[in-house]
């Protein structure tokens, strides 16, 4: 339980709807506090999933209810300078879950699913989408993010809109993302399905301002490409 | 079956012990050829797992035996300019399998396992190690590598040796791997266990020439860090 005694940078993290001077927690979060052996008087971190995080003191704690008092606000040191968005093609089986988890760790603020010409999968059920949202929430907590990424229902690649710059992983490109990415505007990255985007899809995206970038000369699985590309961005230090 | 009619850059890939003018395949590889609907007269690609690859013509093919005739040699365009090595701490469950698979796609030529101070897992059985080798072999084939990475039995981080430059993923570092990596010498990257390397371990590695590098300000799982760091290298275009 080394975390329990950690200083301001450590401490258990509790998701709250809003950061307020006095916050009342219900049975579910209270159970979580008990599992973590939090006791009255302990300091925890509260975050609202929207980029705000602060220390809070556990004023009272019983079986079904806890009262937390807001302490020092904490800067969102774990967030990118501008929002980072991942656009990813629908993938078979449980592959999207792994992508969502890793993308959340790597700083993504928004995840948009797309359907492309070569997609094996063309839709996703409401339950599966909710599961991806829960995974993003868990991963945000574990990696001490102050933002929980939204996971959006899929659109076709033609209907896709994106904030800021769009970088598309594209075999054959020689442009390095590290040479062209600019944190003065939001950053969006896009990776395709198994089998890749079609040339027509890449051309259409490029006509709308997308920049194809390299991930090396090898063939990557559709679930490896987003992690690799987001890793390249994280390795720039943000 | 679009692959079947692919040109010199495509075609089915067959692992052979050595590239020779005439190559005889046994029942196992022949079964593979039948599954792929390869027929006498077809062109396939043969590779030896050691960086050599060439086209070959299927001269004869029956139920248990095939004879292949060597064609044009193919350059190892999918390989990094100098060997890329991944050093990774032992991880729980099936996490190493996923790391080996992604690392192979991302161009690693050698995988060395280490035991560190905070390791949950301190050893790996012979069977599990063999399974990792098989996974590397499959992944190499799928991503059309001409090198199959070796997976080495674990050593302690103190006993570790490495070729060329060693880059260690280290929270708090501000050095970007893209700014310091030099393909004039072999490149080795190292990532720690869940909970990270100890300060003493990082200091000891740095004293031996290792360079700590950033993967951003967030906390990554031990199985995400190697893929992210290798992704950063792939995004440099090699």
From TrEMBL, chains A, B:
Main location (coarse class): cytoplasm
Annotated Ribosomal RNA small subunit methyltransferase E methyltransferase domain ranges read 79-233
Task: Cite the InterPro entries for this sequence.
Answer: Alpha/beta_knot_MTases (IPR029028), PUA-like_sf (IPR015947), RsmE (IPR006700), RsmE_MTase_dom (IPR046886), RsmE_PUA-like (IPR046887), tRNA_m1G_MTases_N (IPR029026)
Report domain Ribosomal RNA small subunit methyltransferase E PUA-like positions: 28-63
Q: Which keywords has UniProt assigned to this entry?
A: Cytoplasm, Methyltransferase, rRNA processing, S-adenosyl-L-methionine, Transferase
The record ties this protein, via Pfam families, to: Methyltrans_RNA, PUA_4
State the EC number(s): 2.1.1.193
State the Gene3D superfamilies in the record.
3.40.1280.10
The family classification in the record reads: Belongs to the RNA methyltransferase RsmE family.
Task: State the name under which the record lists this protein.
Answer: Ribosomal RNA small subunit methyltransferase E
What organism is this sequence from? Deinococcus metalli
